[in-house]
Amino acid sequence: MVAWLVQRRPFWSVASVLNRIRWRWLLWCSLPAIGYIALSFLAGVLVDAVSPADESIGTSGGDWVGFGAFVVPALVILLLVPFQSAAEEFVFRGWLIQAVGAYGPDDPNGKARWLRTLFRSPWPGLVVGGAAFVSAHGYTGWAMADIFLFALVVGWLTVRTGGLEAAIALHVMNNLIAFLLPAATGRLDQWNVQGSAPWTLFVADIPCLAFYLVAVAWLARRKEIRRLS
Per the database record, which ranges form the CAAX prenyl protease 2/Lysostaphin resistance protein A-like domain (predicted)? Predict the structure, then answer.
């Protein structure tokens, strides 16, 4: 609504350079997102196998609650979590990055040309959007660093691919697993527990996010995804 009424541009311009969600591209991005989840699980198992208890990521725990107790929470999660995850992307990687990127003097011959150059780079928007994304969660310590890195990666991919699809695919996939696993193991009452995490989580997530970044960038080149309006 801000984009449409205040900035006077198509409100779907926060979604992509084509003013819409590119559904086929979103599905393509889901493939490396699944790869990210698999790599994250393997990295967690490896870290837990070699790390002391206070540095473990905690990939195990809980017992299967049974299909009857799992099906209803799973349906609710599958219906609502994609909207929750996509909504965060529309705010933090969609509108906010664009709003920061649109700031600064427009006169190329003005006195503050360095300011124009700075804000024509995507990085001020990526950093501000990432910091706002972190502040909207209750994480501390290394968990904050991990979620900030996540925000930078999906933010860069948003700029690189000209839309939110890559960010939405990874965010939705990550959050579905984050909710479905506790539901399957009887720990759904802890769904909103955030807080800190060991440094091993941050280190283990770096190659997983790097894989997703490289894979999506490669797919975008291969599919000739449009970056500019």
Answer: 73-177
